[in-house]
Design a protein that fits this description.
The structure is a homodimer of 354-residue chains. Helix content of chain A is 39%, strand content 17%. Chain A is an alpha/beta fold. In chain A, helix 7 crosses helix 8. Chain A is elongated and about 85 Å long. Chain A binds a DNA duplex (16 and 16 nucleotides) through helix 2 and helix 4.
DNA sequence: TTGTAGGCGTTATCAA
DNA sequence: TTGATAACGCCTACAA
């Protein structure tokens, strides 16, 4: 079709080809209704023929808004952003906003942080996904919403999964299945802490309901409860929540508390670690020990793993974050809010009644 | 520090603050050596104080080059791009190029394809990661290199993993372990085909070496070979290579050829499917059946899975693709080349001697 | 409904 | 070594 021309067509070329002024072309581009059908058709035809595409640089320079919003991911390896993006797309893209994605490392060496790059692009707003690095300096004038992860930025809106509720759901699921000796394995992160707290509160509540003494201690805690009491034991390592943490933590948990029949891990990868530790001890999942994760990542959903998990509903978080960002862009004076999305239990093959 | 000013500082503001002309500021920005230390210091100070950041829009509009290159991923869910990006970064970013990433879906609704968006940004080059969709129309004037995946674009350079060699390595590994009844499970993709072909050729070669008749047929093929001959049976489903494919294919493979003791799957996810099928049949990995995957994804490396796999060396592919893109940008007249990166065997726990 | 004339924030080209 | 001044490609009044 087109020969390998070198210079991209400009609005001038289109105008000339269609026999109109550049302004008219601009109007057509912006879908203005105040253009005669004739001219519009001519312009559209010219655009086709010239394979014209407006320069985003020129558009955002000349226009009042860049129509682009930046998404900062903590790490491309954390798959949870995939669903988040879906939700963000729904909320933002359909409003004509362009999404640009970067993780913490993408353009290091050019910019100090991905935020720098976005500010240079004059993004209209920022979505910080996950636990924001403390040192990503964002000017107060830039609308920001933190999606997933607690707000390190006081001025930012937050849309996140309700980790407390999720932790509670995990414990309740296990208790309903008849488990009374529960274990938790987590590490160093705000999310892990919150999930543990929720898990504990559910155990306490179960004890209260039964009119007995329930207790949730940490490894090393003494006190032998009656055999039908629901009790919980937590191992929280001073390390990131990873597969290694899950493995090491579970080994320690089972060494000190062999009576445990159900393990709740701070997230899916950690749960994977727990499962390998359990296998290494010659035990089976879920026959001997039930295992739960958190986040409902693709690995959990995998047929091979089939991990019972808590769905943090990333899509809804993304959608909520997008909507909120739009509101804040429209009115920067808004008071920061914190929205919690209710998680959801996804039961699979790693948990069973005992 | 800075008050929540609304408008970002411009080069004019900096010039005024430093008491110099805009041109001088521009020179400092471009690290020109033809600037007195005094002025430079003054400008730098002003930049600091004003929290100035050049507008990428203005830069690419006024400059001759956009200094950005676009990376098109087939799908953010395919984790292999993570390493690819690392390689690309090494090659491109350090040369002052900005990377912008998009998957097939990111800005759908705004642009017909991610390529559209990149062309609007006037990227200097494109990296197509994975099997390019046939319909991503790229003007002949845009430098392109396909990273991983066969070139659907004749005019594009290709840097990819040597699937043929990888398939061969897989078979050789299994044969060395003493397996003589080999199975392959794959699906509909160029990569799967090539890996199968390599696997077959290694089986044939093993037979030739042994001076016996070796055969590699497909399911349904007749011919009972002597018990010490190395033979291969392949199940190639007319579907994408997914976990389901791996599971269904493996069931079929073992139904028709229960003598198989080692399964090579077209990729890691498929291998996961194979492992679940094997488990469903009450068999163990690797005691009863060895399993291999391809790509060496994080799942394979996971402690829980420990899948023996073929590392496609994505980092090196990324680096190679970046280097080549730079060359092509410098000289668009170059004849397209195809570089194959030698894969690497990563032995883990799913393969064992028999 | 359509066209004219600035201007957006930089780089690039010339002079000085 | 510095400083005017014209592009760059588009949007946005303002006029016609």
């Amino acid at each position: 079709m087109t020969m390998g021309n070198t210079k991209p067509a400009t609005i001038y070329d289109v105008a000339a080809r269609a026999g109109v002024s550049k302004s008219l072309v601009s109007l057509v581009l912006q879908r203005s209704p105040r253009v005669s059908e004739q001219r519009r058709a001519a312009v559209l035809a010219a655009i086709q023929e010239l394979d014209y595409r407006p320069s985003t640089a020129a558009v955002s320079l000349a226009g009042t808004r860049s129509r682009t919003i930046g998404v900062v991911l903590d790490d491309f390896r954390n798959q949870w952003f995939v669903d988040l993006l879906t939700g963000l797309r729904e909320a933002l893209q359909d409003q004509g906003h362009r999404l640009v994605v970067a993780d913490r490392f993408l353009n290091t060496g050019l910019d100090a942080s991905p935020v720098e790059g976005f500010l240079s692009m004059r993004v209209e707003g920022l979505v910080i996904a996950g636990e924001p690095d403390t040192d990503l300096a964002i000017p107060a004038s830039t609308p920001v919403v933190v999606a997933g992860g607690r707000a390190a930025l006081a001025r930012a809106d937050t849309v996140a999964n309700d980790d407390l509720a999720g932790g509670r759901m995990a414990a309740e699921h296990l208790i309903e299945l008849g488990h009374v000796r529960l274990g938790f394995v987590g590490g160093h992160s705000a999310a892990s802490d919150a999930r543990l707290e929720g898990w504990r509160s559910a155990i306490d509540a179960a004890g209260a309901r039964a009119g007995r003494t329930a207790s949730a201690g940490v490894v090393g805690a003494t006190g032998a409860a009656a055999s039908t009491d629901v009790t919980g034991v937590a191992v929280v390592l001073a390390a990131d929540v990873t597969e290694e943490t899950g493995s090491a933590g579970t080994h320690r948990l089972l060494d000190e508390h062999p009576e445990v029949t159900a393990v709740f891990a701070a997230n899916d990868v950690t749960a994977l670690g727990a499962m390998s530790a359990i296998a290494e001890r010659g035990l089976r999942v879920p026959e001997d020990i039930s295992v739960m994760g958190y986040d409902d990542t693709p690995i959990a959903a995998s047929r091979y793993v089939g991990l019972t998990s808590i769905d943090d509903r990333s899509i809804d978080i993304g959608r909520g974050a997008g909507v909120r960002l739009l509101e804040r862009i429209a009115d920067p004076g808004l008071t920061p809010t914190e929205v919690l999305v209710e998680p959801r239990l996804v039961a699979r093959r790693t948990t069973a009644a005992r």
